[in-house]
Amino acid sequence: MSASTSTVAKLDTKPIMKMDPWLEPYLPGIEKRWELFAKWKATIDSAEGGYEKFSRGYERFGLQAYDDGTITYREWAPNAVKANLVGDFNDWNRSSHQMERDQYGVWSITIPPKAPGVPAIPHDSKIKASLTWIKRVTQDLDVSPAYDARFWNPPADEKYTFKNSRPKKLESLRIYEAHVGISTPELRVGTYKEFTKDTLPRIHKLGYNAIQLMAIMEHAYYAFPEFEQLIVSTTAFGYQVNSFFAASSRYGTPEDLKELIDTAHGLGITVLLDVVHSHASKNVLDGLNSFDGTDHQYFHEGGKGRHELWDSRLFNYGHHEVLRFLLSNLRFWMEEYQFDGFRFDGVTSMMYLHHGIGTGFSGGYHEYFGDQVDLEGVVYLMIANDMLHTLYPNTITIAEDVSGMPLLCVPVSIGGVGFDYRLSMAVPDMWIKLLKEKKDEDWDMGNIVHTLTNRRWKEKSIAYAESHDQALVGDKTLAFWLMDKEMYTNMSDLTEMTPIISRGLALHKMIRLLVHALGGEGYLNFEGNEFGHPEWLDFPREGNGNSFQYARRQWNVVDDQLLRYKYLNNFDAAIQHLEEKYHWLEADPGYVSLKHEGDKVIVFERAGLLFVFNFHHTNSFTDYRVGVDVAGDYKIVLSSDDKQYGGWDRVDLATTFVTTAMEWNNRKNFLQVYIPSRVCLVLALTSTI
């Protein structure tokens, strides 16, 4: 079934033209995709009763338990010729529970209760069913790498009851990107309960107000390469999903995850899910692939339905039942687990027929509206965002897109794709390139500022200095690039503060504050990087002897008060709490008044604060004149040179800086500061402190 061809309202392009007049030559492409979206929405409204009903497929398909003990099981498998439900409950009898097919290719069976209120299928028992809509799957690697479906239907006294309401929608988004499995210091997979008990308090104390949970949707590969012929993954973070409605059983039960999210809400923390709708595992035994005997039930057939680099299957976003499945998946995580929004993985792959493979994006608008655009993928993202923001006005959606697609973070109602934020993926690449290829004295202040501020007007970005990508084996974290092997020998206060460690601590702090304050409308940090987590991230695999040595977070190093990791942790917390007070992430972009290449100084204002960065490797400056627009008395509210942050205490925090009413660097006033080498300062009007 395809989108309706009925007449739809024409897009009013005036808001787009007001936002970006350079889009005028590409209005036909923008209007075309909006027309396709409008037709699909009209079809959903007329044939399915709108988003509200259409996105509740998880309440009809798969296994459903009712209060009287009755169980129904439904699957859409239009090309199947026979279907039976088997499991522990019927001793795996292949003929006792035959399913019936309707005219739409939906197979179903109703199983009466054993007794009033007693289901015939016991809770958490194994069944042989498609993992399409199943809500619980488990894996026993001693038996097989394939997942087993389970009937998750806990008794009322074992079901988790949410106690806390969702936090209000955030305008200043400070995200802590986390992976439950690596959140333990022990050499094993961490659990939901441990994350709730041990990691959530850390995140809250640091001052982050959102968590982005990775690898929650059940995925084929964690790190057991003896099964690589069956299970393949592009990364160890679980981006090849095989069971879209199941929370990963590696970390515990569905009720455990609900407790985690509810506890976070009780702390005022928003919880985002890393959702993967860009592709799916190619597994046949325990995935969507070939469920009804064809390669094109949920995916495109042939080469169009396969990602050549990821070795995975690609959805057919132009199919009615695929839309039901994916939209219901989003709704399920919002309703069943009370997530507050999503970070959509692999958006670039979804929006282009070339999937970004072997393609560089120059920023030319012809790249975004030509024949290479996958209109079905773009329209699906428009529908998904429109549905989420219609049903959940406070939801947050973030796009992982490297292409720079215009209008990606503009509301669907005026022709955009509808995301709230995009990830500023060029920023971490810039820092790694600088640290790998340039001496400190060769850093280009203008290029740094350009990369941090080069974002589309009125389209929000999430800035980050590094994420999980930089932590993976084969790359290095910022801390490791900066300090390398001396992290093993000189991170104790009892050892010499070597030039390498001193430089590393200083630049680590400066880079993160600069990205936070200038780089976007939101900020993201991958867990552990806030304190310069040593070493890299590598999941158990054949190449490392199936070791968990690098698949964990060594919280002990930041908790040890003799080690210097605490200084970076303290500074990161100071940044988060200062932003909580002054809200620069929700303010207009910073006004940069100085990018001095000789002095290596950057100065800008944002949210009424004055930020001063001295990246010079040797020179400190006394009475350094900086422009500021608002006159008054200023004091330092944050100095990276403070002793508690591993600095040298060269800056007097008690000093009051009085402005002089004379224009300087295009600002109405100036003041003069002492700015030591490799130090950053934040000043605020004394009336706001």
Key terms for this structure?
689 residues; alpha/beta; eight-stranded parallel barrel; six-stranded antiparallel β-sheet; 19% strand
Compile the SSE list and pairings:
Layout: H1 14-19, H2 27-48, H3 51-54, E1 62-65, E2 71-76, E3 86-87, E4 100-101, E5 106-111, E6 126-128, E7 137-139, E8 147-150, E9 173-179, H4 192-206, E10 210-214, E11 217-219, E12 241-247, H5 254-266, E13 270-275, E14 306-307, E15 312-313, H6 320-336, E16 341-344, H7 347-351, H8 375-391, E17 396-399, E18 421-423, H9 426-437, H10 445-453, E19 461-463, H11 468-471, H12 478-483, H13 499-518, E20 522-526, H14 555-559, H15 565-582, E21 591-596, E22 601-606, E23 609-614, E24 621-628, E25 633-639, E26 656-658, E27 669-675, E28 679-685
Helix pairs in contact: 2-8, 4-5, 6-8, 13-15
- Summed up, the helix count is 15
Trace the largest sheet across and list its strands: 9-10-13-16-17-18-19-20
Poorly predicted runs are: 223-238
The total beta strand count reads 28
- Please state the overall shape, judged from the principal axes of the Cα atoms: globular
**How many angstroms does the end-to-end distance come to?**
61 Å
Name the helicity range.
Answer: 25-40%
Report the structural category.
alpha/beta
Radius of gyration: 27 Å
Oligomer status: single chain
Beta-strand content bin? 15-25%
The profile of the biggest β sheet is: 8 strands, parallel, barrel
Mean pLDDT: 93
